[in-house]
Amino acid sequence: MLKILSALTSIALFLVGHFSALGQQTPEATLAEVQVIASKFPEKLAQTGKVITMISRQQIQASLGKGLGELLQETVGISVVGSRSAPGTNQEVYVRGANTGQVLLLIDGFPANDPSHISSVMDWNLINLVNLERIEIMKGGQSTLYGSDAMAAVINLVTDRSSNTITLQGGGLGTHAESIMLQNNAGSFRLGVSAQNTSTSGFSAAANQSEKDGFSQQNLRIRIGSSVGKRNDWDLSYQGERYRGNLDAGPFTDDLDYSSSARNHAFRGQWHTQFTNGDLFLRAFHDITRRNFRNDSLYIPANAYSNYSESTYEGVNQGAEVYAKWHLPYGLVGLIGSEMRQQATTQTDFSISAYGRYDSPDIRANLAKIQLWGNYVTLQKHTEKLGLEAGLRWNSHSLFGQSVTYNVNPYWLIAAHAKVFANYYTSFKAPSLYQLYSPYGNQALKPEYGETWEFGIDQSAGRWSGRLVAFQNKVRDGIVFQSMDEEPYGRYANFAKQQTRGIEAELRFVHAKFSASGSYTFLDGNVQSIVGAVDSTYSSLIRRPKHQVSLRLSQQINTKLTLSLFTQYVGVRRDYYFDDATFATRGVDLKGYVWMEMQASYAITKRLKAQVLVKNVLNQQIVELVGYSGQPMNLQASIVYRF
After folding, report:
1. Neighbours of 604 (CB within 10 A)
2. Tally of structural domains, the chain
3. What is the pLDDT, as a whole number, of residue 534?
4. Of 214, 203, 254, 246, which Cα lies nearest the Cα of 616?
5. Which residues pair with 421 in a beta bridge?
6. Can you tell me the distance from the alpha carbon of 584 to that of 578, in angstroms, rounded to the nearest whole number?
């Protein structure tokens, strides 16, 4: 880590000197103009030391024809395994090489968890890009503000509250999508309704098979709100999501009647009161997620252990939070809050074989439930050149008792538009209910605890802007699945420690109607596991590349036509799968690949725009998971009407 920091310091000093000589700052590159909500309230990007990436409305609209995972995959430091595989594939989101369950998803600032999931994460296939205004990605351990799960990053999806649009999409792989979004204000009262439908015939999930695995998704959102007097405001929303997809039996193995489905119902409410020197927020939410996996008996693969199987998972995630921000004496800004979350799950699983029916032990919500109470406080101080945020959180878990996390985030404006920052975070993640109470569960599990260091520079000058960050994450008592020689042939256990380090580099150039942006991610990590007297160390980058490079070029041809090209190199990855022929787990190195997209956007009128997106232009054989297919070359076209 010291070598990385030393090299980063040398590069940073060179960039400061080089960028400072490029000329006067252009308005488009001004850090102070960008607003984010990394600290639960809008603040200028220039006044935080945290590493934040924002995906704008313009980028989201240009990505019509993609899923959320595909868009996140383009972001520096993020790898979304499954995003370029068959529609409906389980998507694993890795940020900076950390495990997939160490990323917290927020929707409009509300936690979006599925307590029935192995890692308690939301099923990313439920989410549609169309109704999003922007995406904020806050890297590093964010547990002080956001509690459990926020060990590697927080991804906040901000929904659109102002657009009136109709969107139609269609293209290759038998894909079509329709959406409508309506917003209306009558005096102080606000009403918003949106609905989306997406369907695709897809392609075979298993490699070297011909049967298509289709996918369909529907979303509905209703939001109402109003101001009360000059200082109060309330907001209520309902969001319903569902999908249905076809699955295959495993690596290289087809299945004609294996399907998955999921439904989510989310109710969210907020009250906001503004004081002379601050703001107060009251929030509450209630989410219900239900997933079903059914393998019917009309088609039985050669490797099948049963003729019929069905699994049902239901998770309830609910909570309430109150927090306030005050402007204090001596230029200090304080944030104090208290949050209560409750989670529960019910799960059933049975199969029918030549030996009869077998029911796995059920999981019941009256047993598989937890409560988590957190209280936090942060202080911020900003001067003309320096800034500091420090925070502390006390957690009380119904199963694991009390714990404390904290963060320190200083920054220094070394030039008019150059910022150096150094961050330290501690974080935690409680074991999921599945890891505790499933047939493979272990109620002796301990929570995971993390420690993150960051050092970097954020610089913009003239037509150039860039950011360089070195980071190191350490996790102790991480949770893994360990195979066993006796029934149930596996269980969840804590390993000794995991360490991941790396570099994120971003560079952007804008000149007139042309823009170019590039990024590079380097990762290196290992896990130390101690089982009995055996102490072993191995790479932790399973399915995650050590090197990932992205480049985007965009040119506005005239007032109506814009063309863009995106290409990404994803390096070699290590994957493991269970070989039915040998009854053993095998390791395979997946080849690196180049992904390329071309996109054209044409403004037919001020209100009507047409877009064409060609994915996997080189038609490379993408392999994200051994034995499974990658997305072939296909074209997606869309028309957007704003009124």
Report:
1. 12
2. 1
3. 67
4. 203
5. 411, 456
6. 6
pLDDT of residue 7: 46
- Residue 27 confidence (pLDDT): 35
225-251: burial string, b at 16+ Cβ within 10 Å, e else: bbeeeeeebbbebebbbbbbbbbbbbb
Q: Which helix (H) or strand (E) holds 223?
A: strand 213-228
- Degrees to nearest 5, angle at CA 100 with 97 and 103: 90
Beta strands in 487-633 (DSSP E): 490-494, 497-511, 514-531, 534-539, 547-556, 561-570, 573-579, 584-590, 593-603, 608-615
What's at 397, amino acid-wise?
Answer: H
Which residues have CB under 8 Å from 416's CB, separation 6+?
Answer: 25
CATH of the domain at 406: 2.40.170.20
- Where residue 202 falls (left for φ over 0; alpha for ψ -120 to 50; beta otherwise) is left
Q: How far apart are CA 161 and CA 132, in angstroms?
A: 9
Angle at the Cα of 568 (from 567 to 570), degrees rounded to 5? Answer: 155
Give the pLDDT of residue 463.
94
Instruction: Give yes or no for a contact between 160 and 55, defined as CB atoms under 8 angstroms apart.
Output: no
The range of the structural domain enclosing residue 336 comes to: 2-642
Query: What's the CA gap between 540 and 439, in Å, rounded?
Result: 25
Cα–Cα distances (Å) from 587 to 98, 537, 543, 581, 582, in that order, read 20, 16, 11, 15, 13
Classify 120 in phi/psi space as left (phi over 0), alpha (psi -120 to 50) or beta.
left
Of the candidates 99, 137, 105, the one whose C-alpha atom is nearest the C-alpha of residue 118 is 99
Residue-level pLDDT at 34: 58
CB atoms within 10 A of CB 207: 19
5: number of Cβ within 10 Å? 15
Both structure tokens of 328: 């204090």
What is the DSSP pairing of strand 153-159 with strand 103-107?
A: parallel
3-state secondary structure of 432: coil
Residue 43 pLDDT = 78
Distance of alpha carbon 223 from alpha carbon 270, whole angstroms:
11
Residues with pLDDT less than 70, the chain: 1-38, 530-534
Do 101 and 80 form a contact (C-beta atoms < 8 A)?
no
Q: Which tokens go with 351?
A: 């199969």
